Amino acid sequence: MAAAPTFPNNNPTSTNTKPSPNPSISTASINSLDGKFALPPAANGIQVNGEANIRPAIPAKKPTMSSRISGIFARKEVKNTSEAKDSRESLATQVVPENAVVGKPPPAQTAASRPAPPSRSSSEKKSSPVPDRSKGSIDRKKEQKDNASHRFWINEDGSHEHQLKVLRRQEKLTDMFKEMMLLGKRKEHHEQPLSLMANWADQMRNEKEKAAADPKMVSPSSQTLVQKYGKCQEVVGRGAFGIVRLAHKTDEKDPKREQLFAVKEFHQRPGESSKKYQKRLTSEFCISSALKHPNIITTLDLIQDAKGDYCEVMEYCGGGDLYTLILSAGHLEVLEADCFFKQLMRAVDYMHEMGVAHRDLKPENMLITQHGAIKITDFGNGECFRMAWEEEAHMTAGLCGSAPYIAPEEYVDQEFDPRAVDVWACGVIYMAMRTGRHLWRVAQKGQDEFFDKYLEDRREEEGYRPIEVLKRRQCRNVIYSILDPNPTRRLTAHQVLQSEWVKDIRVCRAGNEGF
Fold first, then answer.
1. Helices (DSSP H) in 160-214: which residue ranges?
2. Is residue 515 part of a domain?
3. Are both 247 and 186 inside the same structural domain?
Protein backbone atom coordinates (compact mmCIF):
# COMPACT_ATOMS: atom_id res chain seq x y z
CA MET A 1 0.00 0.00 0.00
CA ALA A 2 1.02 3.52 0.16
CA ALA A 3 0.54 5.88 3.04
CA ALA A 4 -1.38 5.16 6.22
CA PRO A 5 -4.20 7.27 7.71
CA THR A 6 -5.07 7.95 11.35
CA PHE A 7 -8.51 7.92 12.93
CA PRO A 8 -10.56 9.08 15.95
CA ASN A 9 -10.09 7.53 19.36
CA ASN A 10 -13.22 6.78 21.40
CA ASN A 11 -11.98 4.37 24.03
CA PRO A 12 -12.15 4.94 27.78
CA THR A 13 -8.94 5.06 29.73
CA SER A 14 -7.50 1.60 30.22
CA THR A 15 -5.96 0.33 33.43
CA ASN A 16 -3.23 -2.02 34.63
CA THR A 17 -1.62 -2.65 31.29
CA LYS A 18 1.55 -4.61 31.00
CA PRO A 19 4.51 -2.53 29.77
CA SER A 20 6.28 -3.92 26.75
CA PRO A 21 9.99 -4.74 26.82
CA ASN A 22 12.56 -2.12 25.85
CA PRO A 23 11.92 -1.23 22.22
CA SER A 24 14.43 -1.91 19.51
CA ILE A 25 15.51 0.73 17.03
CA SER A 26 12.47 0.11 14.82
CA THR A 27 10.08 0.26 17.76
CA ALA A 28 11.62 3.49 18.91
CA SER A 29 11.11 4.90 15.45
CA ILE A 30 7.45 4.03 15.59
CA ASN A 31 6.97 5.52 19.03
CA SER A 32 8.76 8.73 18.10
CA LEU A 33 6.10 9.61 15.54
CA ASP A 34 3.47 12.27 16.14
CA GLY A 35 0.47 10.87 18.00
CA LYS A 36 -1.75 11.59 15.03
CA PHE A 37 0.04 9.16 12.80
CA ALA A 38 1.80 6.67 15.08
CA LEU A 39 0.99 4.28 17.82
CA PRO A 40 1.47 5.62 21.38
CA PRO A 41 4.45 4.43 23.44
CA ALA A 42 4.15 1.14 25.26
CA ALA A 43 3.22 2.07 28.82
CA ASN A 44 0.45 1.78 31.39
CA GLY A 45 -2.83 2.83 29.81
CA ILE A 46 -2.10 1.81 26.23
CA GLN A 47 -4.75 3.31 23.93
CA VAL A 48 -4.79 2.89 20.20
CA ASN A 49 -7.54 3.40 17.64
CA GLY A 50 -10.43 3.32 20.01
CA GLU A 51 -9.32 0.17 21.82
CA ALA A 52 -7.38 -0.39 24.99
CA ASN A 53 -5.02 -3.32 25.39
CA ILE A 54 -6.12 -4.36 28.88
CA ARG A 55 -4.16 -7.20 30.50
CA PRO A 56 -4.37 -8.70 33.97
CA ALA A 57 -1.75 -7.81 36.53
CA ILE A 58 -0.44 -11.41 36.41
CA PRO A 59 -0.63 -12.31 32.72
CA ALA A 60 -1.43 -15.87 31.81
CA LYS A 61 0.82 -17.53 29.28
CA LYS A 62 -0.23 -16.46 25.80
CA PRO A 63 -1.34 -19.13 23.34
CA THR A 64 1.04 -20.17 20.62
CA MET A 65 0.48 -19.12 17.03
CA SER A 66 -0.80 -22.58 16.11
CA SER A 67 -3.41 -22.46 18.86
CA ARG A 68 -4.45 -18.99 17.73
CA ILE A 69 -5.03 -20.20 14.19
CA SER A 70 -6.90 -23.32 15.28
CA GLY A 71 -9.16 -21.18 17.44
CA ILE A 72 -10.22 -18.88 14.61
CA PHE A 73 -13.02 -21.16 13.44
CA ALA A 74 -13.92 -22.71 16.82
CA ARG A 75 -17.09 -20.88 17.68
CA LYS A 76 -17.81 -20.81 21.41
CA GLU A 77 -21.16 -21.48 23.00
CA VAL A 78 -22.20 -18.27 24.69
CA LYS A 79 -25.52 -19.25 26.23
CA ASN A 80 -26.26 -17.63 29.59
CA THR A 81 -22.66 -16.74 30.34
CA SER A 82 -21.55 -13.48 31.80
CA GLU A 83 -18.56 -13.58 29.43
CA ALA A 84 -20.82 -13.33 26.40
CA LYS A 85 -22.71 -10.46 27.95
CA ASP A 86 -19.50 -8.61 28.80
CA SER A 87 -18.22 -9.23 25.27
CA ARG A 88 -21.30 -7.72 23.68
CA GLU A 89 -21.23 -4.75 26.01
CA SER A 90 -17.55 -4.24 25.26
CA LEU A 91 -18.15 -4.30 21.52
CA ALA A 92 -20.99 -1.82 21.86
CA THR A 93 -18.67 0.48 23.77
CA GLN A 94 -16.11 0.27 20.98
CA VAL A 95 -18.25 1.04 18.01
CA VAL A 96 -20.54 3.78 19.34
CA PRO A 97 -18.75 7.13 19.40
CA GLU A 98 -19.70 9.24 22.40
CA ASN A 99 -21.65 11.66 20.25
CA ALA A 100 -22.82 9.30 17.50
CA VAL A 101 -26.55 9.43 17.07
CA VAL A 102 -28.52 6.32 17.94
CA GLY A 103 -31.76 6.87 16.07
CA LYS A 104 -34.73 4.90 14.89
CA PRO A 105 -34.53 2.41 12.05
CA PRO A 106 -34.20 4.09 8.62
CA PRO A 107 -37.93 4.18 7.66
CA ALA A 108 -38.90 6.02 10.85
CA GLN A 109 -35.94 8.32 11.16
CA THR A 110 -36.54 12.05 11.40
CA ALA A 111 -34.27 15.01 10.98
CA ALA A 112 -33.94 15.19 14.74
CA SER A 113 -32.93 11.55 15.20
CA ARG A 114 -30.34 11.54 12.41
CA PRO A 115 -27.28 13.81 12.48
CA ALA A 116 -27.57 16.10 9.49
CA PRO A 117 -24.26 16.72 7.70
CA PRO A 118 -22.98 20.18 8.60
CA SER A 119 -23.72 22.85 6.02
CA ARG A 120 -20.97 24.59 4.12
CA SER A 121 -21.63 27.82 6.02
CA SER A 122 -21.47 26.16 9.41
CA SER A 123 -18.13 24.59 8.59
CA GLU A 124 -16.77 28.03 7.78
CA LYS A 125 -17.88 29.44 11.11
CA LYS A 126 -16.27 26.64 13.06
CA SER A 127 -12.58 26.18 13.48
CA SER A 128 -10.56 25.06 10.48
CA PRO A 129 -11.13 21.44 9.47
CA VAL A 130 -7.39 20.95 9.54
CA PRO A 131 -6.43 19.43 12.90
CA ASP A 132 -4.67 21.99 15.06
CA ARG A 133 -1.44 20.38 16.16
CA SER A 134 -1.05 22.94 18.90
CA LYS A 135 -4.11 21.56 20.65
CA GLY A 136 -3.79 18.99 23.36
CA SER A 137 -4.42 15.34 22.58
CA ILE A 138 -7.81 15.53 24.31
CA ASP A 139 -8.95 18.36 22.00
CA ARG A 140 -7.80 16.46 18.91
CA LYS A 141 -9.61 13.32 20.00
CA LYS A 142 -12.80 15.31 20.60
CA GLU A 143 -12.54 16.85 17.14
CA GLN A 144 -12.08 13.40 15.58
CA LYS A 145 -15.10 12.04 17.47
CA ASP A 146 -17.20 14.92 16.18
CA ASN A 147 -16.15 14.07 12.61
CA ALA A 148 -16.91 10.39 13.15
CA SER A 149 -20.46 11.13 14.32
CA HIS A 150 -21.14 12.82 10.98
CA ARG A 151 -19.70 9.93 8.94
CA PHE A 152 -21.87 7.17 10.40
CA TRP A 153 -24.42 6.47 13.08
CA ILE A 154 -26.05 3.44 14.72
CA ASN A 155 -29.77 2.76 14.64
CA GLU A 156 -31.79 1.42 17.56
CA ASP A 157 -31.99 -2.05 15.97
CA GLY A 158 -28.16 -2.30 15.96
CA SER A 159 -27.73 -1.63 12.24
CA HIS A 160 -25.70 1.34 11.08
CA GLU A 161 -25.56 3.79 8.19
CA HIS A 162 -22.84 5.88 6.54
CA GLN A 163 -23.02 9.39 5.09
CA LEU A 164 -19.88 10.33 3.19
CA LYS A 165 -19.33 13.65 1.42
CA VAL A 166 -16.38 13.64 -0.96
CA LEU A 167 -16.54 17.38 -1.76
CA ARG A 168 -16.24 18.37 1.91
CA ARG A 169 -13.38 15.89 2.31
CA GLN A 170 -11.55 17.31 -0.72
CA GLU A 171 -11.89 20.81 0.74
CA LYS A 172 -10.40 19.61 4.00
CA LEU A 173 -7.50 17.82 2.28
CA THR A 174 -6.81 20.87 0.12
CA ASP A 175 -6.60 23.02 3.24
CA MET A 176 -4.30 20.47 4.87
CA PHE A 177 -2.02 20.48 1.82
CA LYS A 178 -1.90 24.30 1.73
CA GLU A 179 -1.10 24.41 5.44
CA MET A 180 1.78 21.96 5.02
CA MET A 181 3.24 23.94 2.12
CA LEU A 182 2.72 27.44 3.53
CA LEU A 183 3.83 26.67 7.08
CA GLY A 184 6.80 24.59 6.02
CA LYS A 185 5.70 21.33 7.60
CA ARG A 186 7.40 19.07 5.08
CA LYS A 187 10.03 18.08 7.65
CA GLU A 188 7.36 16.98 10.10
CA HIS A 189 5.86 14.54 7.62
CA HIS A 190 9.18 13.21 6.36
CA GLU A 191 9.93 12.25 9.94
CA GLN A 192 6.90 9.94 9.75
CA PRO A 193 7.95 7.56 6.98
CA LEU A 194 5.00 5.17 7.38
CA SER A 195 2.20 7.75 7.52
CA LEU A 196 -0.24 7.96 4.62
CA MET A 197 -0.12 11.74 4.86
CA ALA A 198 3.57 11.91 3.93
CA ASN A 199 2.97 9.88 0.78
CA TRP A 200 -0.14 11.88 -0.13
CA ALA A 201 1.67 15.21 0.17
CA ASP A 202 4.35 13.99 -2.26
CA GLN A 203 1.68 12.81 -4.72
CA MET A 204 -0.07 16.19 -4.58
CA ARG A 205 3.16 18.04 -5.35
CA ASN A 206 3.95 15.75 -8.30
CA GLU A 207 0.44 16.06 -9.73
CA LYS A 208 0.53 19.86 -9.58
CA GLU A 209 3.87 19.88 -11.39
CA LYS A 210 2.58 17.53 -14.11
CA ALA A 211 -0.62 19.52 -14.58
CA ALA A 212 1.36 22.75 -14.99
CA ALA A 213 3.70 21.16 -17.55
CA ASP A 214 1.01 19.36 -19.60
CA PRO A 215 -1.46 21.66 -21.41
CA LYS A 216 -3.34 18.59 -22.68
CA MET A 217 -4.79 17.88 -19.25
CA VAL A 218 -7.91 19.76 -20.32
CA SER A 219 -9.12 17.80 -23.33
CA PRO A 220 -12.28 18.08 -25.41
CA SER A 221 -14.78 15.25 -25.26
CA SER A 222 -15.80 13.48 -28.45
CA GLN A 223 -19.30 14.00 -29.73
CA THR A 224 -20.08 10.32 -29.29
CA LEU A 225 -18.95 10.35 -25.70
CA VAL A 226 -20.93 13.52 -25.00
CA GLN A 227 -24.06 12.13 -26.62
CA LYS A 228 -23.97 8.90 -24.65
CA TYR A 229 -22.72 10.01 -21.24
CA GLY A 230 -22.67 13.80 -21.16
CA LYS A 231 -19.87 16.33 -21.06
CA CYS A 232 -16.73 15.47 -19.09
CA GLN A 233 -15.94 18.24 -16.64
CA GLU A 234 -14.07 18.21 -13.31
CA VAL A 235 -11.19 15.82 -12.59
CA VAL A 236 -12.02 13.47 -9.72
CA GLY A 237 -8.98 11.18 -9.84
CA ARG A 238 -5.45 10.81 -11.21
CA GLY A 239 -3.01 7.97 -11.61
CA ALA A 240 -0.25 6.52 -13.76
CA PHE A 241 -2.91 5.44 -16.28
CA GLY A 242 -4.22 8.98 -16.83
CA ILE A 243 -7.10 10.84 -15.21
CA VAL A 244 -10.73 10.26 -14.20
CA ARG A 245 -13.31 12.92 -15.04
CA LEU A 246 -16.90 13.34 -13.99
CA ALA A 247 -19.39 13.31 -16.87
CA HIS A 248 -22.73 15.13 -16.41
CA LYS A 249 -25.77 14.14 -18.44
CA THR A 250 -29.32 15.40 -18.10
CA ASP A 251 -31.74 12.61 -17.28
CA GLU A 252 -34.00 12.08 -20.30
CA LYS A 253 -36.91 10.98 -18.09
CA ASP A 254 -36.55 13.87 -15.67
CA PRO A 255 -34.80 16.99 -17.05
CA LYS A 256 -34.43 18.36 -13.52
CA ARG A 257 -32.17 15.47 -12.57
CA GLU A 258 -28.59 14.83 -13.61
CA GLN A 259 -26.87 11.51 -14.25
CA LEU A 260 -23.22 11.22 -13.24
CA PHE A 261 -20.60 8.89 -14.75
CA ALA A 262 -16.91 8.41 -14.01
CA VAL A 263 -14.85 8.50 -17.23
CA LYS A 264 -11.36 7.06 -16.97
CA GLU A 265 -9.11 8.41 -19.72
CA PHE A 266 -6.29 6.00 -20.63
CA HIS A 267 -3.04 7.49 -21.90
CA GLN A 268 -0.70 5.54 -24.14
CA ARG A 269 2.54 4.85 -22.32
CA PRO A 270 5.84 6.14 -23.75
CA GLY A 271 7.20 3.59 -26.21
CA GLU A 272 4.02 1.51 -26.07
CA SER A 273 2.79 0.33 -29.47
CA SER A 274 -0.81 0.91 -30.49
CA LYS A 275 -1.37 -2.86 -30.55
CA LYS A 276 -0.17 -3.30 -26.94
CA TYR A 277 -2.07 -0.21 -25.86
CA GLN A 278 -5.36 -1.58 -27.22
CA LYS A 279 -4.68 -5.05 -25.81
CA ARG A 280 -3.99 -3.63 -22.34
CA LEU A 281 -7.17 -1.59 -22.27
CA THR A 282 -9.46 -4.26 -23.70
CA SER A 283 -8.03 -6.78 -21.23
CA GLU A 284 -8.84 -4.52 -18.26
CA PHE A 285 -12.27 -3.72 -19.67
CA CYS A 286 -13.12 -7.37 -20.26
CA ILE A 287 -12.20 -8.32 -16.70
CA SER A 288 -13.97 -5.43 -14.97
CA SER A 289 -17.11 -5.56 -17.10
CA ALA A 290 -17.49 -9.32 -16.58
CA LEU A 291 -17.56 -9.03 -12.77
CA LYS A 292 -20.99 -8.36 -11.29
CA HIS A 293 -20.94 -7.88 -7.52
CA PRO A 294 -22.31 -5.22 -5.12
CA ASN A 295 -18.77 -4.39 -3.99
CA ILE A 296 -17.08 -4.22 -7.41
CA ILE A 297 -17.37 -1.14 -9.63
CA THR A 298 -19.86 -1.40 -12.48
CA THR A 299 -18.08 -0.85 -15.82
CA LEU A 300 -20.41 0.38 -18.55
CA ASP A 301 -18.47 1.09 -21.73
CA LEU A 302 -15.11 1.45 -23.49
CA ILE A 303 -15.15 4.29 -25.98
CA GLN A 304 -12.71 6.57 -27.84
CA ASP A 305 -12.67 10.32 -27.40
CA ALA A 306 -11.94 13.00 -30.00
CA LYS A 307 -8.17 12.58 -29.54
CA GLY A 308 -8.33 8.85 -30.13
CA ASP A 309 -7.65 7.97 -26.47
CA TYR A 310 -9.75 5.19 -25.00
CA CYS A 311 -12.08 6.02 -22.13
CA GLU A 312 -13.64 3.56 -19.71
CA VAL A 313 -17.06 4.64 -18.44
CA MET A 314 -18.03 3.50 -14.94
CA GLU A 315 -20.59 4.22 -12.26
CA TYR A 316 -19.74 7.25 -10.13
CA CYS A 317 -19.16 6.81 -6.40
CA GLY A 318 -19.97 10.03 -4.56
CA GLY A 319 -18.17 9.03 -1.36
CA GLY A 320 -14.67 9.25 -2.86
CA ASP A 321 -12.03 6.60 -2.16
CA LEU A 322 -10.96 4.87 1.03
CA TYR A 323 -7.52 6.46 0.93
CA THR A 324 -8.74 10.05 1.21
CA LEU A 325 -11.31 9.01 3.80
CA ILE A 326 -8.55 7.67 6.03
CA LEU A 327 -6.43 10.76 5.42
CA SER A 328 -9.17 13.19 6.37
CA ALA A 329 -10.42 11.15 9.35
CA GLY A 330 -7.01 10.18 10.76
CA HIS A 331 -8.15 6.60 11.29
CA LEU A 332 -11.49 4.81 11.10
CA GLU A 333 -13.69 3.72 13.97
CA VAL A 334 -13.93 -0.02 14.67
CA LEU A 335 -17.45 -0.25 13.25
CA GLU A 336 -16.48 1.54 10.03
CA ALA A 337 -13.30 -0.45 9.45
CA ASP A 338 -15.00 -3.78 10.13
CA CYS A 339 -17.91 -2.98 7.80
CA PHE A 340 -15.58 -1.96 4.97
CA PHE A 341 -13.30 -4.95 5.57
CA LYS A 342 -16.11 -7.49 5.30
CA GLN A 343 -17.34 -5.88 2.10
CA LEU A 344 -13.80 -6.06 0.72
CA MET A 345 -13.41 -9.74 1.61
CA ARG A 346 -16.75 -10.59 0.00
CA ALA A 347 -15.65 -8.95 -3.25
CA VAL A 348 -12.24 -10.67 -3.18
CA ASP A 349 -13.84 -14.04 -2.48
CA TYR A 350 -16.18 -13.51 -5.46
CA MET A 351 -13.29 -12.51 -7.76
CA HIS A 352 -11.31 -15.59 -6.80
CA GLU A 353 -14.33 -17.82 -7.39
CA MET A 354 -14.53 -16.27 -10.88
CA GLY A 355 -10.86 -17.07 -11.51
CA VAL A 356 -9.67 -13.44 -11.30
CA ALA A 357 -7.01 -11.88 -9.06
CA HIS A 358 -6.74 -8.10 -8.68
CA ARG A 359 -3.03 -7.87 -7.79
CA ASP A 360 -3.16 -4.18 -6.83
CA LEU A 361 -5.52 -3.90 -3.87
CA LYS A 362 -4.97 -0.72 -1.85
CA PRO A 363 -7.17 2.04 -0.35
CA GLU A 364 -6.77 4.18 -3.48
CA ASN A 365 -8.47 1.43 -5.53
CA MET A 366 -11.44 1.14 -3.20
CA LEU A 367 -14.20 3.62 -4.00
CA ILE A 368 -17.08 4.34 -1.63
CA THR A 369 -20.65 5.41 -2.30
CA GLN A 370 -22.19 8.17 -0.21
CA HIS A 371 -24.02 5.51 1.80
CA GLY A 372 -20.91 3.42 2.57
CA ALA A 373 -20.78 0.68 -0.08
CA ILE A 374 -17.22 -0.32 -1.01
CA LYS A 375 -16.44 -0.69 -4.75
CA ILE A 376 -13.17 -2.27 -5.91
CA THR A 377 -11.87 -0.59 -9.06
CA ASP A 378 -8.80 -0.45 -11.37
CA PHE A 379 -8.19 -3.91 -12.79
CA GLY A 380 -5.17 -2.76 -14.79
CA ASN A 381 -2.98 -5.39 -13.09
CA GLY A 382 -5.74 -7.99 -12.88
CA GLU A 383 -5.24 -11.43 -14.35
CA CYS A 384 -7.17 -14.63 -14.93
CA PHE A 385 -5.53 -17.50 -13.07
CA ARG A 386 -8.19 -20.08 -13.97
CA MET A 387 -10.42 -20.44 -17.01
CA ALA A 388 -14.06 -21.46 -16.75
CA TRP A 389 -13.32 -25.03 -17.85
CA GLU A 390 -10.35 -25.46 -15.51
CA GLU A 391 -10.29 -26.62 -11.90
CA GLU A 392 -6.70 -25.89 -10.90
CA ALA A 393 -5.35 -22.36 -10.54
CA HIS A 394 -2.30 -21.25 -12.51
CA MET A 395 0.60 -19.75 -10.62
CA THR A 396 1.72 -16.25 -11.58
CA ALA A 397 5.00 -14.32 -11.57
CA GLY A 398 6.23 -10.76 -11.59
CA LEU A 399 6.19 -7.87 -9.15
CA CYS A 400 3.31 -5.39 -9.34
CA GLY A 401 1.26 -3.19 -7.02
CA SER A 402 2.18 -0.61 -4.39
CA ALA A 403 5.13 -1.45 -2.14
CA PRO A 404 3.47 -1.47 1.33
CA TYR A 405 0.77 -3.89 0.08
CA ILE A 406 2.95 -6.31 -1.90
CA ALA A 407 3.18 -9.78 -0.33
CA PRO A 408 6.64 -11.06 0.69
CA GLU A 409 6.57 -14.07 -1.67
CA GLU A 410 6.56 -11.74 -4.67
CA TYR A 411 10.14 -10.77 -3.82
CA VAL A 412 11.53 -14.28 -3.32
CA ASP A 413 9.46 -16.81 -5.30
CA GLN A 414 9.61 -17.26 -9.05
CA GLU A 415 5.96 -18.30 -9.09
CA PHE A 416 3.22 -17.79 -6.51
CA ASP A 417 -0.54 -17.98 -6.01
CA PRO A 418 -2.11 -14.59 -6.91
CA ARG A 419 -5.04 -15.27 -4.56
CA ALA A 420 -2.72 -15.30 -1.53
CA VAL A 421 -1.26 -11.99 -2.71
CA ASP A 422 -4.72 -10.38 -2.71
CA VAL A 423 -5.49 -11.68 0.79
CA TRP A 424 -2.21 -10.29 2.15
CA ALA A 425 -3.09 -6.85 0.77
CA CYS A 426 -6.49 -7.01 2.49
CA GLY A 427 -4.77 -7.49 5.85
CA VAL A 428 -2.52 -4.48 5.30
CA ILE A 429 -5.56 -2.42 4.26
CA TYR A 430 -7.40 -3.32 7.48
CA MET A 431 -4.45 -2.26 9.62
CA ALA A 432 -4.21 1.01 7.65
CA MET A 433 -7.89 1.69 8.38
CA ARG A 434 -7.43 1.00 12.08
CA THR A 435 -4.10 2.75 12.64
CA GLY A 436 -3.91 5.37 9.89
CA ARG A 437 -0.44 4.26 8.89
CA HIS A 438 1.48 1.56 7.07
CA LEU A 439 2.98 -1.32 9.00
CA TRP A 440 6.14 -1.22 6.86
CA ARG A 441 7.53 0.30 3.69
CA VAL A 442 8.19 -3.01 1.97
CA ALA A 443 7.54 -6.61 3.14
CA GLN A 444 11.02 -7.79 2.22
CA LYS A 445 13.15 -9.48 4.86
CA GLY A 446 16.40 -7.67 5.53
CA GLN A 447 15.31 -4.60 3.56
CA ASP A 448 12.88 -2.98 6.00
CA GLU A 449 13.39 -2.65 9.76
CA PHE A 450 9.65 -2.49 10.43
CA PHE A 451 8.97 -5.71 8.54
CA ASP A 452 11.91 -7.43 10.24
CA LYS A 453 10.44 -6.36 13.59
CA TYR A 454 7.09 -7.90 12.60
CA LEU A 455 8.71 -11.22 11.63
CA GLU A 456 10.52 -11.30 14.96
CA ASP A 457 7.64 -10.25 17.20
CA ARG A 458 4.95 -12.51 15.68
CA ARG A 459 6.91 -15.50 17.02
CA GLU A 460 7.10 -14.10 20.56
CA GLU A 461 4.53 -14.55 23.32
CA GLU A 462 3.97 -10.80 23.53
CA GLY A 463 3.18 -10.67 19.81
CA TYR A 464 3.48 -7.78 17.38
CA ARG A 465 2.37 -4.63 19.16
CA PRO A 466 0.33 -2.88 16.38
CA ILE A 467 -1.78 -6.05 16.08
CA GLU A 468 -1.83 -6.87 19.80
CA VAL A 469 -3.48 -3.53 20.62
CA LEU A 470 -6.56 -4.68 18.69
CA LYS A 471 -8.82 -5.57 21.60
CA ARG A 472 -10.71 -8.57 20.23
CA ARG A 473 -8.81 -11.86 20.31
CA GLN A 474 -10.67 -13.26 17.29
CA CYS A 475 -9.73 -10.18 15.26
CA ARG A 476 -6.05 -10.48 16.18
CA ASN A 477 -5.97 -14.16 15.27
CA VAL A 478 -7.41 -13.55 11.82
CA ILE A 479 -5.08 -10.63 11.06
CA TYR A 480 -2.04 -12.70 12.12
CA SER A 481 -3.18 -15.51 9.81
CA ILE A 482 -3.84 -13.15 6.89
CA LEU A 483 -0.39 -11.62 7.35
CA ASP A 484 1.39 -14.97 7.55
CA PRO A 485 4.64 -14.61 5.56
CA ASN A 486 4.21 -18.23 4.41
CA PRO A 487 1.54 -18.10 1.65
CA THR A 488 0.71 -21.81 2.03
CA ARG A 489 -0.46 -21.17 5.61
CA ARG A 490 -2.26 -17.92 4.82
CA LEU A 491 -6.04 -17.93 5.07
CA THR A 492 -8.06 -17.80 1.86
CA ALA A 493 -10.72 -15.12 1.36
CA HIS A 494 -13.43 -17.72 1.96
CA GLN A 495 -11.81 -18.85 5.22
CA VAL A 496 -11.61 -15.25 6.41
CA LEU A 497 -15.34 -14.85 5.81
CA GLN A 498 -16.02 -18.06 7.76
CA SER A 499 -13.99 -16.95 10.78
CA GLU A 500 -15.83 -16.18 14.03
CA TRP A 501 -14.80 -12.53 13.98
CA VAL A 502 -15.87 -11.72 10.42
CA LYS A 503 -19.10 -13.70 10.70
CA ASP A 504 -20.14 -11.45 13.59
CA ILE A 505 -19.48 -8.21 11.67
CA ARG A 506 -22.68 -6.40 10.70
CA VAL A 507 -22.50 -4.81 7.25
CA CYS A 508 -24.64 -1.78 6.47
CA ARG A 509 -27.55 -2.19 4.05
CA ALA A 510 -25.75 -0.13 1.40
CA GLY A 511 -22.76 -2.46 1.64
CA ASN A 512 -24.98 -5.52 1.22
CA GLU A 513 -26.88 -4.11 -1.74
CA GLY A 514 -24.18 -1.94 -3.33
CA PHE A 515 -25.92 1.45 -3.42
1. 166-182, 186-190, 196-213
2. no
3. no
To the query of whether residue 214 is one of the catalytic residues in this protein, the response is no
Give domain status of residue 305, yes or no. Answer: yes
Annotated binding-site ranges for ATP:
264
Number of domains in the chain: 2
Residue 468, C-beta contacts closer than 8 angstroms, at least 6 positions apart: 53, 462, 476
Residue tagged active-site, from 305, 360, 378, 422: 360
CA-wise closest residue to 330 among 118, 39, 52, 37: 37
Give the residue from 297, 315, 333 where a domain finishes.
315
Domain boundaries, position 177: 169-215
**Annotated binding-site members:** 264
Cα–Cα separations (whole angstroms), residue 174 to 277, 345, 359, 377: 34, 31, 30, 24
Q: What is the spatial distance between Cα 357 and Cα 394, in angstroms, rounded to a whole number?
A: 11
What CATH number should be reported for the domain holding residue 223? 3.30.200.20
Residues 228, 263, single domain; the answer is yes
| Residue pLDDT, tens place only, 158-211 | 788 888 776 556 666 666 656 655 655 544 444 466 766 666 556 555 655 555
CA dist 467 and 370 (Å) reads: 30
- Separate counts of helices (H) and strands (E) for the chain: 20, 14
pLDDT of residue 272: 85
